[in-house]
Amino acid sequence: MALKDLFTKNQTKKKKYATIPTEAAKQDVPEGIMTKCPSCKKIMYTKELLKNHKVCLHCQHHFQMNAGERIESFIDEGSFEEINENMISKNPLQFPGYLEKLEKDRQKSKLNEAIVTGIGTVGGCKVVVAIMDASFRMGSMGSVVGEKITLAIEKADELSVPFIIFTASGGARMQEGAISLMQMAKTSVALKKFSNNGGLIISIMTHPTTGGVSASFASLGDYNFAEPEALIGFAGRRVIEQSIREKLPEDFQTAEFLLKHGQLDAIISRLDLAEKIANILEIHQPGGEITW
Amino acid sequence: MVGELEFERPLIELRKKIAELKEFTLNTDVDLSSEISKLEARLVKLEQDIYENIKPWDRVQIARHPNRPTTLDYISYLFEDFFECHGDRRFADDEAIVGGIAKFKGLPVTVIGHQRGKDTKENIRRNFGMPHPEGYRKAIRLMHQADKFKRPIICFIDTKGAYPGKAAEERGQSEAIAHNLFEMAGLKVPVICVVIGEGGSGGALGLGVGNRIYMLENSTYSVISPEGAAAILWKDAAQAKRAAETMRITAPDLKELGIIDEIIPEIKGGAHRDVKKQAEQIEHTLLATLKELLKLSPEELVEDRYNRFRTIGEFDFINEYAGVK
Ligand SMILES: [Zn+2]
């Protein structure tokens, strides 16, 4: 068999594979004209779903959003200016295959890392915003994520404007070992400094927010909010079930579970999010002279 | 009428009689207008007599009236853009206390208060307005937040008391209340407390260390419920009425004792007759107090609150030491 033939054959095989998507892939097709809701199984126009901030038109299920979609949905139109967009990860532990995985995710997500940071306005109020993107390395936090968050906090401090973070992360990035772990501390000490200077911190936890991210900046807002039904927790469900030898309740580690257990100020639907956050920002605007 | 009160019964009967006579004249040719106006004059006098001589026990009944306006009722009339914040970030969200951020005539404030339910279902959810430790911990969390962002704090007090229960003790009911007293002392923003219903002991005081403390005319504030006091003093909870009179728990009593700053007048018959009007009365007081307190520096506010409580207490000195030498 000629080398050329082999190539063609492979290509055909690949193509064939791509035309038979798995059940899971079918439920999660973001491209294409129609999208099926993984929660209520109803099918709707993708265009309409996007227009509805990726909230199911039938059951209000909140689809995961990438950073670009979030900016479009949340930040005042045309006001967003990205900062530190060119920062990329190194391979500090010489972890086998890490750089290749990063490169693959760069291609796939069109992002340099698992977070986008920048300056914009919400309801006319200037803010610094950091948006994690779970499509890049599951939104895990290594040096770059930690550094970009820290720089964003410092920018908010410098400009004396609120800092808003959208979290979506599987936790610390294993391939950077203890350096990843220390990003939890780095972002936290930066937040404390900002807070001591009177800075307003708003955390909005989206699906999923777990591990080292939930155990650091995600939980350190003056206001901690979450989107409906978002998975939020420290340890994974299976790890807990194995360690306590018990089946956990259905709603365990959902936003609703956290609200009941005192961890959230409120759950806010994405459809109301920009308006409600704008309202809170307005209440925190400095200098409104009262003339009674 | 729903929730009619014992002491109002003569009024209710007289009103009924007048209504009957009016009905009668409509259906017959008999002219009873002079009788009716006589009775109406009597009604005015009787109302005056009754409402100007409200006994302590009657006030207890008004304070416990099922339709008495709650914290959330007043919030809806007094503030704009109220956003409720939940949770103590420790254990749970205790719905016996509500709190959040809002604007009062354009000024950002933090509002916190005990919250009773309007019906059985809501009362179960809110534990009849009797908080667990997590309620007090939510409250102090929101007060610290107000302190950070330099917002005045307004507290509405309305509870039979902190919940006496096993779980509450396990999680440190005493520590939670004590911590609030301690931390409220250090707040660098104005703190205004208004007792709107029952001020039940430490459970009330846990939201009560303010620069100014006001009481609605028919609210109560006491170290123990009249029933509890009667049970201890006379081994008979049925003597609650007597205890209510002895213990000096009404707004006029507390004003006289120098524990509260002012009484906020209630409309005739109690706040439940007209929430909107009652809210207006509270609004006057809040406005005047904020104008006054906002002139103080953070240090002056802390000092003012310190003095407010430091001076409470009654004692004498005698010249000779009578004890063991
Ligand atoms: Zn759906």
TrEMBL record, chain A:
Mapped zinc finger ranges (C4-type): 37-59
Cofactor list: Zn(2+)
Family annotation (InterPro entries): AcCoA_carboxyl_beta, Acetyl_CoA_COase_Trfase_b_su, ClpP/crotonase-like_dom_sf, COA_CT_N, Znf-ACC, Znf_C2H2_type
EC number: 2.1.3.15
Cofactor note: Binds 1 zinc ion per subunit.
GO MF term (any one): transferase activity
Residues of the CoA carboxyltransferase N-terminal domain: 33-292
Compartments, as annotated in UniProt: Cytoplasm
Keywords: ATP-binding, Cytoplasm, Fatty acid biosynthesis, Fatty acid metabolism, Lipid biosynthesis, Lipid metabolism, Metal-binding, Nucleotide-binding, Transferase, Zinc, Zinc-finger
The UniProt record lists the keyword Nucleotide-binding: yes
Main location, first listed in the record: cytoplasm
Keyword Oxidoreductase: no
Catalytic activity field: N(6)-carboxybiotinyl-L-lysyl-[protein] + acetyl-CoA = N(6)-biotinyl-L-lysyl-[protein] + malonyl-CoA
Binding site for Zn(2+): C37, C40, C56, C59
Functional pathway: Lipid metabolism; malonyl-CoA biosynthesis; malonyl-CoA from acetyl-CoA: step 1/1
Record Pfam families: Carboxyl_trans (PF01039), Zn_ribbon_ACC (PF17848)
Family recorded in the similarity comment: Belongs to the AccD/PCCB family.
Function: Component of the acetyl coenzyme A carboxylase (ACC) complex. Biotin carboxylase (BC) catalyzes the carboxylation of biotin on its carrier protein (BCCP) and then the CO(2) group is transferred by the transcarboxylase to acetyl-CoA to form malonyl-CoA.
Quaternary data: Acetyl-CoA carboxylase is a heterohexamer composed of biotin carboxyl carrier protein (AccB), biotin carboxylase (AccC) and two subunits each of ACCase subunit alpha (AccA) and ACCase subunit beta (AccD).
Family matches, as PANTHER family: ACETYL-COENZYME A CARBOXYLASE CARBOXYL TRANSFERASE SUBUNIT BETA, CHLOROPLASTIC (PTHR42995:SF5)
Name of this protein: Acetyl-coenzyme A carboxylase carboxyl transferase subunit beta
Lineage: Bacteria, Bacillati, Bacillota, Bacilli, Bacillales
Encoding gene (name): accD
TrEMBL record, chain B:
Keyword Metal-binding recorded: no
Pathway this chain belongs to: Lipid metabolism; malonyl-CoA biosynthesis; malonyl-CoA from acetyl-CoA: step 1/1
Gene Ontology molecular function terms on file: transferase activity
Name of the protein this chain belongs to: Acetyl-coenzyme A carboxylase carboxyl transferase subunit alpha
Family annotation (Pfam families): ACCA
Catalytic activities: N(6)-carboxybiotinyl-L-lysyl-[protein] + acetyl-CoA = N(6)-biotinyl-L-lysyl-[protein] + malonyl-CoA
Family of this protein: Belongs to the AccA family.
Gene (name only): accA
CoA carboxyltransferase C-terminal domain span: 35-292
E.C. no: 2.1.3.15
Record's keyword terms, sorted: ATP-binding, Cytoplasm, Fatty acid biosynthesis, Fatty acid metabolism, Lipid biosynthesis, Lipid metabolism, Nucleotide-binding, Transferase
